[in-house]
Amino acid sequence: MPTPAAITEYMKLSVSERIQLVEDIWDSITAEAPDTVALSEAQKIELHRRLAEHRADPSTAIPWEQVRSKLFPSKP
User: How far apart are CA 56 and CA 50, in angstroms?
Assistant: First the structure.
């Protein structure tokens, strides 16, 4: 469990630095214990289904910029 001092320190990081920190932590977990983050069989089946659906009709894909603008609308 992080100490209050550690939380204070990482909250000083910019959002992009914190995202990078999370990615680095995730990469270290998958490298150290890959079986703990393995996909279930149901998740694998769903991923394959979605990929096949996309390949069958790529026009249904939504560009990241459009998704991002819906998730994070600009503030007035």
Answer: 10
Q: What is the pTM of this model?
A: 0.48
Alpha-helix runs per DSSP H in 1-76: 4-11, 15-32, 41-56, 64-71
Whether residue 76 lies inside any domain: the answer is: no
Domain containing 32 equals 4-71
Task: Tell me the pLDDT tens digit for each residue of 6-63.
Answer: 888 888 988 889 899 999 999 999 899 888 888 899 999 999 999 999 999 999 999 9
32 and 25 in contact (C-beta within 8 Å)?
Answer: no
Report how many domains make up the chain.
1
Q: Are 38 and 47 contacting, i.e. CB atoms less than 8 angstroms apart?
A: no
Start-to-end CA distance of the chain, whole Å, equals 38
CA distance 43 to 61: 20
